[in-house]
Design goal:
With about 475 residues, this protein is of the alpha/beta class. Helix content is about 25%, strand content about 20%. It binds pyridoxal-5'-phosphate (PLP).
Length: about 475
């Protein structure tokens, strides 16, 4: 596949580079002002290795809504992973990467009619259902569909609960849906659930798998031949988290209830695969120091930092995904810690990233890094108020290049070898032709008024202060 968007290419790092050195190279180049991401492909590959090791019987179908960056989909496809899509557009995006329609599950239990028709047309047959009218819709629009009944079984503690919107009651509703599907002569192939995103209640997987087993038995009694158990999403993905406890519960439960190769087990992990692969770098463009009371007006009691990404951009995850983020100043600080808050760039008072934290004094142009920014950030971000969604710089070390360079849909073409600063600066926001307003022939400027690009200056050259005469 030809790579048309140069920004999507993977920069192969030499042995002395890693995500943090790349962040520093770009941030401290003196040429970068906008916030940007560094995506480490190796982190995604590593997650896949963990998954295969911990959940060997469970085949992952990545939940596209979590992060639908093309490069993420390509990498996951190259690893042979399937995909969970919720809409026609997501299905098309996954198909465009070259994934076979049999590796897609349409896992939205409430689907618009045109999307079902589209699924039928492109051969996406497996789809989840949690209500009677959906069964009738499918009967009409895609009668050969492979129906998966989605039941509700909620984690007691989860970052995002889903049960109030999706999943039928496994005891009171699901049996009825099975009977209706039988009357409609639809093909029910299995059961799915989603315990809630960011699940902190591993035993819930046991309860859910037990419910699924009961419904498998009922389905067999009704004449179906169910063979698919879909254990949904919910697995954590941040640095320092682990899926060990969930994997333990899942493995025991599938041994207990589905100890047969005749049942195919899949899951729909989203955040597990991408959360830690994305690191966001933001810079401080404004600062307000709140001074103390009338007795000591010169003492800063609180610093407010305004950075170039906020809750309308990447940090929408604070509102929609209930995430907590940790700011990491790029420079080592010194002096005493000052109570601080961090704000996004828009003019909305709601646009706050961190509300109260102790930080060393920072200045305009300093950078603040946020790790674990890959899940439920970019696909939701908007350029509200004219602040752009950060660009993504994609990197991988040499071993990943050797592993993936011929793993379709990835090709040699996807990789850029040689970690030169010029390579890494591909796509920086200063230095490209599109950001050169001074070349507009309609505006005539004298030589002195033109900005000159002086990359050898210190990185802080943008912020030259004018000395102010003291007032008498
Ligand atoms: C969002 C979603 C997922 C992914 O959930 P994670 O908690 O990110 O793993 C999986 N399946 C369905 C149906 C979803 O809606």
């Amino acid at each position: 596949m030809k790579v048309t968007n140069l920004d999507e290419r993977i920069h192969v790092l030499d042995g002395s580079s890693n995500v943090m050195t790349v962040v520093k190279d770009i941030a401290l180049s003196g040429l970068q002002e906008e916030a940007f991401y560094v995506l480490d492909i190796g982190d995604i590959v590593n997650k896949h290795q963990i998954w295969k090791e911990k959940l060997p019987r469970v085949q992952p179908y990545y939940a596209v809504k979590c992060n639908d960056s093309l490069i993420v989909l390509e990498v996951l496809a190259s690893l042979g992973i399937g995909f969970d899509c919720a809409s026609k557009t997501e299905i098309n995006k996954v198909l465009s990467v070259g994934v076979d329609s049999s590796k897609i599950i349409f896992a939205n239990p409430a689907k618009p009619a045109s999307h079902i028709r589209h699924a039928a047309a492109v051969g996406v047959d497996t789809m989840t259902v949690d209500n009677e009218s959906e069964l009738h819709k499918i009967k009409k629009l895609h009668p050969a569909a492979k129906v998966v009944i989605r039941i509700r079984c909620d984690a007691e503690v989860a970052q995002c609960q889903l049960g109030m919107k999706f999943g039928c009651d496994p005891i009171y509703e699901a049996p009825n849906l099975l009977r209706i599907a039988r009357m409609l002569d639809l093909d029910v192939i299995g059961v799915s659930f989603h315990v809630g995103s960011g699940c902190q209640d591993p035993p819930v997987f046991h309860r859910a798998i037990r419910h699924a087993k009961i419904l498998f038995d009922l389905a067999i009694d009704l004449g179906f031949k169910p063979y698919l158990l879909d254990i949904g999403g919910g697995y954590p993905g941040n640095k320092g988290t682990s899926i060990d406890k969930i994997a333990d519960v899942v493995n025991k439960a599938i041994d207990e209830y589905f100890d047969t190769d005749a049942v195919h087990i899949i899951a729909e992990p989203g955040r597990f695969y991408v959360a830690s692969a994305f690191t966001l770098a933001t810079s401080i463009h404004s600062k307000r120091s709140v001074r103390g009371d009338e007795n000591c007006p010169n003492v800063t009691t609180h610093n407010m930092y305004y950075i170039n990404d906020g809750v309308y951009g990447s940090f929408n995850c604070l509102l929609y995904d209930h995430q907590h983020v940790t700011p990491l100043p790029l420079k080592d600080g010194c002096g005493k810690m000052i109570p601080s808050s961090i704000w996004g760039p828009t003019c909305d008072g709601l646009d706050q990233v961190v509300d109260n934290i102790l930080l060393h004094e920072m200045e305009l142009g300093d950078w603040i890094i946020f790790e674990d920014m890959g899940a439920y950030t970019l696909p939701v971000a908007s350029p509200f108020n004219g602040f752009p969604v950060p660009k993504v710089h994609v990197v991988a070390d040499e071993s990943i290049w050797l592993l993936l360079k011929d793993a379709l849909p990835l090709t040699e073409d996807h990789f850029v070898i040689g970690n030169t600063p010029a390579n890494l600066r591909l796509g920086l926001d200063i230095g490209g032709t599109d950001i050169d307003p001074w070349s507009n022939p309609a505006i005539q400027l004298s030589q002195a008024e033109m900005l000159t690009d002086s990359p050898n200056d210190s990185p802080t050259f943008i912020y030259d202060y004018v000395e102010i005469e003291p007032l008498n």
